[in-house]
Amino acid sequence: MAITREGRICSFCGEPGGPGTDLPLIGGLGAQVCARCIDDFHETIHDEELLAAARSTLPWDSMTDAEVLATLPMIMSSAEQTTAFAHEWVDMLRTRRVSWAEIGRALGVSRQAAWERFARKSGDKGATA
Questions:
Q1: How many structural domains is the chain composed of?
Q2: Which of 51, 52, 75 is nearest to 63 (CA)?
Q3: In a domain, 127, yes or no
Q4: Does residue 45 sit within a domain?
Q5: pLDDT tens-digit series, residues 101-126
Q6: Pure H helices in 1-129
Q7: For residues 92 and 85, what is the distance between their CA atoms, to the nearest angstrom?
């Protein structure tokens, strides 16, 4: 099973990126970041004024209710991407014949809880092993 960046979005700005786009994405653990956001973050951490401003305020403090509402779908898209990434990792582990018990232990849940959360999405119907 190949896990790719195709169809992913930047977890910070929400822009689609990856293969077939002009926006390279890098990252892991479900979060992806685009080159533009990396450049913005790099500029911020290397500019004392920008860094002080970033440390003193939270972005949503200066946003209107309409701006916060407009951002909510991007937050949900990023969360859904991270959840899908977890499913891909579980699929990969099952392809490697890692047991549901081992997956459950890694997640701090029972074998049954791991299976209930991930098996239906992955198509893995085997509740044993």
A1: 1
A2: 75
A3: no
A4: yes
A5: 999 999 999 999 999 999 965 455 55
A6: 35-45, 48-56, 65-95, 100-107, 111-122
A7: 10
